[in-house]
Amino acid sequence: MTTNIEKRAAGLGVETRAEDDKRTLVGYAAVFERLAMIGGYFQEKIAPGAFATAIKGDIRALVDHDPGRVIGRTKSGTLRLAEDGTGLKVEIDVPNTTDGNDIWELVERGDISGMSFGFRVTKETWDETGEVPVRTIQALELMEVSAVAFPAYEDTTIGVRSLEEWRSANPSEITPVEGEEDPAAAPVSKAAHRARLKMDLELKVRSMR
Q1: CA distance 119 to 2
Q2: Among residues 69, 80, 125, 159, which one has the fewest Cβ atoms lying within 10 Å of its Cβ?
Q3: What is the pLDDT of residues 183-206, one digit of tens each?
Q4: Distance between CA 23 and CA 101 in Å, rounded?
Q5: 3-state DSSP call for residue 192?
Q6: From its record, what is one biological process in GO terms (predicted)?
Q7: Is 109 buried (19+), middle (13-18) or exposed (0-12) by CB count in 10 A?
Q8: pTM for this one?
Q9: Residue 187: what pLDDT?
Q10: Residues 30 and 51: beta-carbon distance below 8 Å
Q11: pLDDT at 143
């Protein structure tokens, strides 16, 4: 189901490379160990090796995460994915189609500004020792990579739900905040943050039904 897919972007941009009549888009869809704030609810980073198994699948390259706008595929060799010291490197051999020609022109003009990816988390950890929870994605299922006009961190609902599920399963791992038992004495910190997460999660889950 599409509601189980999260989308993220590296924000490093995408560039064109033309060689021997082959047009290739090159960029990074993800960067390792870079903390990013997700919707104001939690921070997130991707651990090296998170894509090691994921890139072995049959992955498609899309335009703006639209499954009806395919511009490359690993099975056909027109999409190449690799992990390196920076993150998930993407190379797409752009087709001579309407979408392909449009995306090439838009990247050259600077209108298409980055790469993104759709995924499902298969292994993660949470750290709540700081004021804001930190999610580390250790492994994932890669659904697609996309050239996008607005590279951004999206779809916070699933991450927030994951945090609440982790808290339910690991109550002893949650560090108490001094004065948290007394709402009047509790500082605006983890206690307030948890309350906000809980309320927003309930609203978001209800809206998805």
Answers
A1: 10
A2: 125
A3: 433 344 455 555 555 555 555 445
A4: 10
A5: helix
A6: proteolysis
A7: exposed
A8: 0.76
A9: 40
A10: yes
A11: 94
Looking at the chain, the number of H-run helices and the number of E-run strands are 3, 11
Of 87, 62, 82, residue with least CA distance to 73:
62
158 in any annotated domain:
no
The reply to whether 48 and 128 lie within a common domain is yes
58 and 149 share one domain: yes
Does one domain contain both 133 and 170? Answer: no
Q: How far apart are CA 142 and CA 209, in angstroms?
A: 25
Quick one: pLDDT at residue 85? 92
Q: Report yes or no on 95 lying in a domain.
A: yes
What contacts 111, CB < 8 A, 6 or more positions away? 149
Task: Please tell me the total count of domains within the chain.
Answer: 2
pLDDT in tens, 100-110: 999 999 989 98
Residue 41 lies in a domain: yes
Q: Which amino acid is at 38?
A: I
Q: Which pLDDT tens digit goes with each residue over 153-169?
A: 555 556 667 778 777 88
User: Distance between CA atoms of 162 and 81, rounded to whole angstroms?
Assistant: 27
Query: What is the domain extent for residue 56?
Result: 2-153
Structure tokens at 183: 């709402």
